[in-house]
Amino acid sequence: MAICQSTGDPNFYSGKCQGSPKTERLISLIPEVPDHVRAMHLRRFAEYGNFDVVRKLLDSGCHVDGDSKVTEGSVDNGNVETPLYLAARLGNEDVVKLLLEYGADVHKARLQVHRPMEGAVKSGSIAIAQKLLAYGAVCDCTIVVQALLSEYPAMVELLLGQFTEKCQHTLFGRDLAEEMLERGLSSMLDLLYNRRCFRYSDGRIVAYSPVVED
Question: Domains in the chain, ordered, with CATH?
Answer without folding.
Answer: 2-138 (1.25.40.20), 150-214 (no CATH)
